[in-house]
Design goal:
The complex is a heterodimer of chains A (333) and B (278). Chain A is of the alpha/beta class. In chain A, 30% of the residues lie in helices and 25% in strands. Chain A has helices at residues 3-7, 19-36, 49-58, 78-92, 103-116, 225-234, 243-248, 279-285, 314-329, and strands at residues 12-15, 40-44, 63-69, 96-100, 120-121, 126-129, 135-141, 146-152, 157-161, 178-184, 192-198, 211-215, 238-241, 269-273, 290-295, 308-311. Chain B is globular, with a radius of gyration of 22 Å. The chains are: A alpha/beta (333), B alpha/beta (278). Chains A and B meet through helix 4, helix 5, strand 5, strand 7 and strand 8 of A and helix 3, helix 4, strand 7, strand 8 and strand 9 of B. Strand 16 of chain A pairs parallel with strand 13 (252-253) of chain B, so a sheet runs across the interface.
């Protein structure tokens, strides 16, 4: 390995402010740690620091780096966490740093990377270390229609990885990781949190659904969703939506959003209704076994992501689908 | 333009990226994006950023100015669109050597560009900087928070609502499992997506009429406070290839004379695959 690499003699650093995601990053982190024969280090900081520490030890981290403020005040603001991450990287000379690409994680990674004056590869879908120690990653660009293969040559190689990209690391029989404390000077946060409001929750967990009917901008009125809800019921599935329907308008609760800013789903059957297929959405439904796209625009990118494409009017196809399903379900005679 | 920007008349900088329209981008014979044939546009979320800036400027008697770093000058009609939407001026930082090719370098260049634009506008500072949460082409989600770090501004990312009151910016921030109500004293930076507003669409007449507004071109290498050598020396992120991934999907066009026929064919195929059973 090159000289730059020689200075990065620390462990593989992983961080997510989200406990579940940290468990997943430990899987990838362990792979890198084994390959480079380095320890696997998880950073624990923020509101969930205790839970992160626990999760990391339980799932086999060799060390947990707990970052605290010199003045011992709680490190909870994103601004402070980005600084803390930056100091954790400076203190541990990691060859690779993996951060969970939640929305908050994306912000923290970018803020820390700018302070460190290093690049960062965002939302990597595949990551591989070559024989020279370079980290090659694939990420989706141009609305998900192309993949950009990028190479990070110099340590620290910062990357972010979307939640649910990897399975969680196995729990170890007996946690053997050490805990190290890092005390750093942190400037006081400038942003005040006035209130935190949990999102309204649906009764269904779309990430576990076997069949998903997904609605996009092609649906013209909120009441039209009832038709799609009917299709979902007939096929034993649930109704979900793309970002426009769960954000720009609140026709569906946000926990039914599929995509980069929502959930990642792996149903057996996924029927995209009036969804154009932007990267934001594709990222969340790539793992579906069979994909059907109904869209009147033959050029919509969703068709490239579908097994079966129906180019036509949603408002003709959906009623026909309901009728066919009802007919098929009706007992003969 | 008066020298002092008071909190009641905010100076707002909106960062814009001009991108080949991903919706119209095709692969060439080798499976690479054919960038020559895709028309340029203002990156989607940046249109929302412009809209957010314009609304705040209009409400408080302020002024919104756009800033972009570009390796090649965008087509004039696309620049005019930003002006026609209502920004008072567009600053284009020309990067002919393509030095600003990753978010680290773009944010560093934008920070210098923001300072240069403020100086030319006789402003001591920008009260508010607004960016789209990600670009439509690269989708790194990095430049906003990086620019905040480079300008030492507090950042509110993924804002779904922005309001200014007596120099205090209040925002709703939408993340996975919750929304947050945040407050910060100006100056500050915010990133926005499509949730925050519907961007106005200027008419062709408005676009033609925007030609009188100033477009200020500055060379990246001439920006005060930007060390071009440092920009070159930053660690690199190399793009090895950009390609159209082979699809694992069947990509079957389900045909039919009518909706009924298409649906019948679809259900027959899904039945054969074992995905539907009645």
């Amino acid at each position: 390995m090159g000289t730059q690499e020689d200075q990065a003699d620390g462990g593989i650093l992983v961080f997510s402010e989200h406990v579940e995601t940290l468990g997943e990053l430990l899987t990838l982190g362990r792979e890198f740690a084994s390959r480079l024969q380095r320890p696997l280090i998880a950073v624990a900081v923020g509101r969930e620091a205790e839970a992160l520490l626990d999760e990391a030890l339980t799932r086999g981290a060799d060390q947990v780096l707990v970052v605290r403020s010199l003045r011992d005040d709680a490190v909870v603001a994103d601004e402070s966490i980005a600084q803390a991450l930056c100091e954790a990287v400076r203190a541990s000379a990691p060859p690779i740093v993996v951060i969970g690409a939640t929305r908050t994680g994306a912000e923290l990674a970018a803020g820390a990377a700018q302070r460190l004056q290093v690049p960062c590869a965002s939302s990597c879908i595949t990551l591989e270390i070559d024989d020279a120690g370079n980290l090659d990653v694939d990420r989706r660009v141009y609305g998900g229609r192309f993949v950009s293969r990028q190479r990070l040559t110099a340590a620290p190689r910062l990357v972010t990885v979307p939640p649910k990209r990897f399975p969680k690391a196995e729990k170890v029989a007996r946690a053997q990781g050490s805990v190290r404390e890092l005390r750093v000077e942190l400037a006081g946060p400038r942003i005040r949190t006035v209130s935190v409001n949990p999102r309204s929750r649906s009764q269904v967990d779309i990430s576990k659904a076997e069949v998903i009917i997904s609605a996009g901008r092609g649906v013209k009125r909120k009441e039209d969703l009832e038709q799609l809800e009917r299709v979902a019921r007939l096929l034993g599935g649930v109704l979900a939506g793309s970002r426009p329907l769960t954000g720009d308008v609140d026709w569906l609760p946000v926990d039914r959003r599929i995509g980069l800013s929502g959930q990642t789903v792996k149903p057996n059957l996924y029927i995209a209704c009036g969804i154009s297929g932007q990267i934001e959405h594709i990222v969340g439904m790539k793992g579906a076994r069979t994909v059907v796209a109904i869209n009147n625009d033959p050029k919509a990118p969703i068709h490239g992501e579908a097994d079966y494409s129906l180019v036509g009017d949603l408002y003709e196809i959906v009623p026909a689908l309901i009728e066919s399903c009802e007919k098929a379900k009706r007992p003969p005679g | 333009m008066t020298a002092a920007a008071t909190p009641s008349a905010p100076s707002i900088l909106v960062c814009v990226k001009f991108v080949p329209d991903p919706a119209q981008l095709q692969a060439d014979a080798a499976g690479r994006p054919d960038l020559r044939q895709a028309p340029f546009r203002i990156s989607t979320f940046d249109e929302n950023a412009i809209e957010a800036a314009l609304r705040l400027a209009a409400e408080h008697g302020g002024r919104a100015v756009a800033l972009s770093v570009c390796a090649q000058l965008p087509p004039r009609d696309v620049v005019l669109k930003a002006l026609a939407m209502g920004v008072a001026a567009v600053y284009l930082i020309k990067d002919e050597e393509r030095l600003a090719r990753d978010p680290l370098r773009v944010a560093t260049a934008l920070a210098a560009g923001a300072r240069a634009a403020a100086a030319r506008e006789n402003l001591a500072r920008w009260d508010l900087v607004i960016c789209g949460e990600a670009s439509a082409d690269e989708y790194n989600q990095q430049v906003g928070p990086r620019l905040a770090a480079a300008l030492d501004l507090p950042a509110i990312t993924y804002a779904t609502n922005l309001a200014l009151n007596e120099g205090v910016l209040s925002a709703e921030r939408g993340i996975e499992d919750r929304s947050e109500t945040l407050e910060v004293s100006a100056p500050a930076l915010a990133t926005v997506g499509t949730e925050i507003n519907t961007a106005r669409m200027p008419t062709v007449l408005q676009i033609m009429g925007a030609g009188r507004k100033p477009v200020i071109e500055l060379a990246l290498s001439d920006l005060a406070g930007l060390d071009v050598e440092q920009l070159k020396a930053f660690p690199a992120i190399e793009v090895l290839d950009v390609f159209s991934p082979p699809s694992a999907r069947k990509q079957v066009m389900v045909k039919g004379e009518s909706a009924d026929e298409m649906v019948g064919e679809l259900l027959r195929r899904l039945g054969a695959d074992g995905e539907v059973t009645f």
